[in-house]
Amino acid sequence: MNAFTVIIRPVRLKDAQQVRDNCFSANTFEQVKKGIRHSQYAAAKGKEIQLVAEVEGTVVGVVLLVRRMHPLNNHRAEVGGLVVEPNYQGRGIARRLVSACQEKAQQMGILILEISCRAGEPAEQIYPRLGFIEYGHLPCGIVEPWGEYKKYDQIYFYKPID
Q1: DSSP string covering 93-154, please?
Q2: What is the pLDDT of residues 107-148, one digit of tens each?
């Protein structure tokens, strides 16, 4: 694949099918659409923003930035749902999405980004390369609510915003 231009922008409702197909294939179209609507509502209140990475008109990545709302913690925000379509992984899309989250977080007055993942997954090695620092490990922190209810340890990371 040759060089390509990546556009990072807020998610739109009309992105729902591509977000579902390229990033959240385990979810239904309706679930993705509902999530986008919720995110847009929360964005209007300054609580979160969902961004997508677009290449040649196709959504190939997504991320959600959610501000902590408790008064003692609202200087922190969680980066969640960071997914890049497999054909675009390893091409800097996740880095661009995290960088955009950091810019939005700075505009919101956020000082610390947080992110977590299942232990043993590639994200455990990727997040430190994106500037995140590991600070915790919760045994059985993730339980999938489907199928065999698989259990995973959860690894926590943070990234100070300069």
Answers
A1: HHHHHHHHHHHHHHHTT--EEEEEEETTSTHHHHHHHTT-EEEEEEEEEEE-SSTT--EEEE
A2: 999 999 999 999 999 999 999 999 999 999 999 999 988 888
Question: What torsion do the CA atoms of 143, 150, 37, 19 make, to the nearest 10 degrees?
Answer: 140
User: Which residue ranges form the domains of the chain, and what is each CATH number?
Assistant: 6-115 (3.40.630.30)
As a whole number of angstroms, the distance between CA 40 and CA 4 comes to 28
Q: Could you read off the pLDDT of 43-87 as tens digits, one per residue? A: 999 999 999 999 999 999 999 999 999 999 999 999 999 999 999
* β-bridge pairing 58-67 and 112-118: unpaired
Residue 139 has φ and ψ, to the nearest 5°, of -60, 135
Identify the CA nearest to 153 among candidates 134, 139, 143: 139
List Cα–Cα distances, 136 to 35, 126, 153, 161, 162, in angstroms.
28, 16, 10, 19, 22
Contact of 113 with 102, CB cutoff 8 Å: yes
Does the pTM surpass 0.85? The reply is yes
Sort strands 112-118 and 76-84 into parallel, antiparallel or unpaired: parallel
